[in-house]
Design brief:
The complex is a heterodimer. Chain A is α+β, with helices and mostly antiparallel strands. Helices cover 51% and strands 18% of the residues of chain A. Chain A has 2 domains: 176 residues, no CATH class; 232 residues, no CATH class. Chain A contains 14 helices and 16 strands. In chain A, the strands form 4 sheets. In chain A, strands 1, 5, 6, 7, 8, 11, 12, 13, 15 and 16 form a 10-stranded mixed β-sheet that branches. The radius of gyration of chain A is 32 Å and the shape is elongated. Chain B is an alpha/beta fold. Chain B has a single domain, classed as P-loop containing nucleotide triphosphate hydrolases (Rossmann fold). Chain B is built from 7 helices and 10 strands. In chain B, the strands form 2 sheets. Chain B has a 6-stranded parallel β-sheet with strand order 6-7-8-3-9-10, sandwiched between helices. In chain B, strands 2-1-4-5 form a 4-stranded antiparallel β-sheet, covered by helices on one side. In chain B, 48% of the residues are buried. Classes of the chains: A alpha+beta, B alpha/beta. The interface between A and B is medium-sized, with 28 and 33 residues.
């Protein structure tokens, strides 16, 4: 016979009350678990989708020169031979302490090139990085596979006479259909390799190249593909391999800017900016605050909503425990008096009653977590556009149990202490 | 020195909601020797149960002192007084107050629940106590599976399982018929015969007559003007508690 024996026996005696408490706690915990799981999943999805918007950190040379605007971002002195970054600078970005938070580092060189007497802006890029950074790109044709191949923006291609409408759709010459392209939500779950493979294996069908040769500064290149309209500055650019463009522009090892995508969930973007700035003191490192803030705001709202609703439900569960435990104290006044009379200290009474509450809370927490997880699993497809499935989370299970125990202990503290303070002589005479 | 020394004990219950205070005991003094069987008699409302709970370290008197085995009970802290009850006292209540969800042997083990003793030893002690009151064969039964007399005996077993020096019984036969009441009284007398000190509250003259001594409490507030002392007479005679 221990104090726990009494607690367990009393729970068995009052099965319906114990079941009611377990149910109440389980309902609260299940709601909290489901909301947290769903809001976390939706937050991740929003973060992932916002990540598709591209870079959120841009590294450019420090300069007082007139800037060339690129993608809404000031690219300092991009057209001038002053204050350029180098390939080594791009490499050093990957050495910052938060390097593991960097999704993509995309160095590029911008410069003007001559083609048949016309000037075009040429961008030397690492195509794999660029595809990873700009997942909304759709390529008509194929991606450049090696040296001497280019990818041309839609407007540039039209201006240079590289494209013409296909026989199937002459009115909308370069707009791919859903049959031959993949939208951004599908891209969200793809790796860069999958993305590249997709673009190679699903060529657009309503578009064709008029010619696939282009001279730049007197050197002939092959046009591998043309970008579908992006609505951005990329439409006016000609993209080539970084090393080739550096050679073409006679700026070997030089860079105009480095775009960095660090938009992973809960990324400390400001810290990352600081670390890059420390690594590259000659560079100006800017975070695209708008994208970051928008994402943080969206994620924050969802998280706050989930937390608020969970809090309300848990408070209701706490009130249920409080009223039930208070009722139990009144009902068991005589028993408590007897226990006090035979030598139970106040602490023993608290222990006995707390053991009951904690046992019930633990059961409610475990049941609630299981129910919440099941609900999340069932509801996830209705909330997740990317079809991300439910993933069991051990930390959430531990949190659910801890919350259940904490709610149980805190809400029953007052009635339990009150029980321990009952006057034994009065308690045994309680009617 | 006497085993129990009650000196000039008074008890006033505080007023509730503006009502008058209620004085239940006033200037009560008496002594009980070790091994005595003392019956405390008096009409309803005379303060018998209050006096028993005062002696039982459960009800702090408004004035006076209670000394048991040389220990000034109300000089102890609340928690030490709980320990004192566990080590020195056994209670038998009028309604028995058994835990309905515990078996007979578990009910008897209740005072041992807070004691650091192996469970096996606790059970053995409880079974021994049950044997003493003739319930050895009914250890696994729930209280509601026992007769009234058996429940009374079970309550006594619970009171003596920790072998307390003093057994306090508050009308343990009050809710029983004559025959089962007799059963319970026989157990108490048997225990007293083995040296157990017993203080029995009763309004049953027959039960009181079987005690070694009777303390008669008449209206806790009434005063006898001739004396402020306890008159100790020979076994079986009535002793008046007098108030100063």
């Amino acid at each position: 016979m221990r104090i726990s024996t009494i607690a367990w026996a009393n729970l068995r005696r009052r099965k319906s009350r114990a079941a009611l408490l377990v149910g109440g706690i389980a309902l609260g915990i299940a709601t909290a678990v489901a909301l947290l799981t769903l809001s976390r999943s939706i937050s991740e999805e929003i973060g992932l989708q916002l990540d598709q918007f591209g870079a959120n950190i841009v590294v450019v040379p420090k300069s007082d020169q007139l800037a060339l605007d690129y993608g809404g971002v000031s690219v300092a002195a991009a057209a001038f031979d002053v204050g350029e970054l180098t390939d080594e600078d791009a490499r050093r970005i990957s050495e910052i302490p938060y390097a593991n938070r960097l999704a993509v580092v995309s160095p590029k060189l911008l410069g003007a090139a001559d083609t048949g007497g016309r000037k075009v802006v040429v961008a030397g890029v690492d195509f794999e990085s660029e595809y990873a950074l700009k997942r909304w790109w759709r390529v008509v044709g194929r991606k450049p596979a090696g040296p001497g191949e280019l990818l041309v923006g839609h407007d540039a291609a039209r201006a240079l006479g590289l494209v013409e409408p296909s026989a199937e759709d002459t009115s909308q010459p370069v707009v791919p259909t859903s049959a031959n392209t993949v939208d951004a939500s599908q891209h969200a779950t793809m790796s860069a390799e999958e993305h590249a493979a997709m673009m190679q294996t699903a060529p657009p069908q309503h578009f064709k190249l008029a010619r696939d040769r282009l001279d730049l500064n007197g050197r002939e290149f092959r046009v591998a593909g043309v970008l579908a309209p992006t609505g951005g500055r990329d439409d006016a650019l000609v993209f080539g391999g970084r090393a080739e463009v550096q050679a073409l522009l006679k700026r070997p090892g030089r860079l105009s800017l480095v775009e960095v995508s660090a938009l992973c969930k809960d990324c400390p973007v400001e810290d990352i900016v600081g670390q890059i700035a420390q690594k590259l003191p000659a560079a100006k490192v800017s975070a695209l605050q708008q994208a970051v803030r928008a994402r943080a705001e969206a994620v924050g709202r969802l998280t706050r909503f989930g937390a608020a609703v969970s809090g309300v439900v848990l408070i209701i569960a706490a009130l249920l425990i409080f009223t039930t435990t208070t009722g139990a104290v009144v009902e068991r006044t005589k028993e408590i008096g007897v226990m006090r009379a035979v030598g139970f200290r106040r602490a023993h009474i608290v222990k006995e009653m707390m053991l009951e509450v904690l046992a019930v809370s633990f059961a409610g927490g475990a049941l609630g977590w299981a129910a919440g997880a099941a609900a999340s699993w069932a509801l996830m497809p209705y909330f997740s556009q990317t079809g991300q499935g439910f993933r069991p989370d051990a930390s959430l299970a531990a949190l659910a149990l801890f919350a259940a125990l904490a709610v149980g202990a805190l809400s029953s503290l007052y009635p339990t202490l009150r029980a321990s303070r009952l006057d034994p002589s009065e308690a045994v005479r309680h009617v | 020195m006497s085993f129990i020394v009650v000196e000039n004990v008074g008890k006033v219950y505080s007023a509730s909601a503006g009502g008058p205070e209620t004085r239940v005991l006033e200037g009560v003094s008496f002594r009980v020797e070790e091994g005595e069987f003392v019956a405390l008699m008096g009409p309803s409302g005379s303060g018998k149960t209050t006096l028993l709970t005062v002696v039982g370290a459960m009800n702090r008197p408004t004035e006076g002192s209670v000394v048991v085995d040389g220990i000034d009970v109300y000089a102890l802290t609340e928690e030490r007084r709980a320990d004192f009850r566990r080590e020195y006292l056994g209670f038998v209540f009028q309604q028995h107050h058994l835990m309905p969800y515990l078996s007979a042997v578990e009910n008897v083990m209740l005072p041992l629940a807070t004691v650091r003793t192996p469970s096996r030893e606790k059970r053995e002690r409880a079974l021994t106590a049950l044997e003493k009151v003739g319930l050895g064969s009914k250890a696994a039964r729930l209280p509601n599976q026992l007769s009234g007399g058996e429940q009374g005996r079970l309550a006594i077993a619970r009171a003596v399982v920790n072998e307390p020096p003093l057994l306090l019984a508050d009308e343990p036969t009050g809710s029983l018929d004559t025959r089962t009441g007799e059963e319970v009284m026989n157990v108490l007398l048997d225990l007293n015969g083995r040296g157990q000190t017993v203080l029995l509250v009763t309004h049953n003259p027959d039960n009181a007559a079987r005690a070694g001594r009777i303390l008669h409490l008449r209206d806790g507030r009434s005063l006898r003007s001739n004396s402020n002392r306890e008159m100790v007479n020979s076994r079986g005679t009535e002793t008046q508690l007098v108030h100063g």
